[in-house]
Amino acid sequence: MERNVKTAQVLLETKSLLGEGILWNKHDQSLYWVDILQKRIHQYNLENNVSTFWELPGYVSKIVPLEEDGGKFLIAMQEGLSIWNKEDQGLSIVASLDTYNGQIRTNDGGIDPAGNFWIGTMHMKALPNQGKLLCFRDGILETIIPAVTIPNGLVWSANGRFLYFIDTHTREIRRFTWDKTAGLSKAYHTLVRVPDKLGMPDGMCIGPDGHLWVAHWDGYGVYKWHIETGELLDKVQVNAPHVTSCCFGGPTGMDLFIATAREGLDDAQLEAYPDSGKVFHFKNLISE
């Protein structure tokens, strides 16, 4: 791993209880993320430094901008998938989920190369194998993996051949073969097993350099893993233990944005790491 120390800086002071699902929206040149437990969608516009948030009627874990309209998003909520209109906060349900009396909620998700939305579910107390990995295709939610615990990651290789997926409690980054027609392979290759000292893998993105950038819960940073060999290549330090999600964006697409959480930290930890829950930023992390 490279020895030069890189440290992300606080981007804005807003604190999330469980910040997740951070993304860069090219339509309005803004950063979006969710606070799952506070049921909020946040937006921060880098051009005018204006931040805002919207409160929703339920837990929201993932948002994806719809390409045809920068003001509309496909969002994953506890009760299912909906189209959310930012302009009037309207919600239109497109697929329902069984919450098992409020015990199950959605977590991380992603878009496959064919344009289908994938979403993972989990138990509210993260009980083992109570969640699923689902694919929303042709208006139907289909179960792909029937038993997962804390589904995270969900990114596809540039050539569309592989899905990289994390079930956080396993500490593994898994690579599945994927095909538009055949779907997902049942077998997978464990690309990385994260050592205990580095925390647990959470959200993940593929950087402009083509490698995996992974937020590590209890790992105090975002780690760069080689997308083919699984070798640890780099780390961006974050002054918060619970690092949850990351994405690249900004004017050049080379800035790293990082979400964190206060959830799960005791008073002593919150005093030691008062920036927990904030969004962090490393400008021009990757050179063109």
From TrEMBL:
Known cofactor(s): Zn(2+)
Family statement: Belongs to the SMP-30/CGR1 family.
An individual GO BP term = L-ascorbic acid biosynthetic process
Q: Which UniProt keywords apply?
A: Metal-binding, Zinc
Which PANTHER family does this UniProt record tie to the protein?
A: REGUCALCIN
Sample GO molecular function, one term: gluconolactonase activity
Query: Can you say what this protein is called?
Result: Sugar lactone lactonase YvrE
Binding-site residues for substrate, renumbered to this chain: R105, N107
Q: How is the cofactor bound?
A: Binds 1 divalent metal cation per subunit.
Q: Which residues bind a divalent metal cation?
A: E20, N152, D202
Q: Name one Pfam family in it.
A: SGL
SMP-30/Gluconolactonase/LRE-like region domain mapped to chain residues: 18-262
The answer on whether this UniProt entry bears the keyword Zinc reads yes
Q: Where is the active site?
A: D202
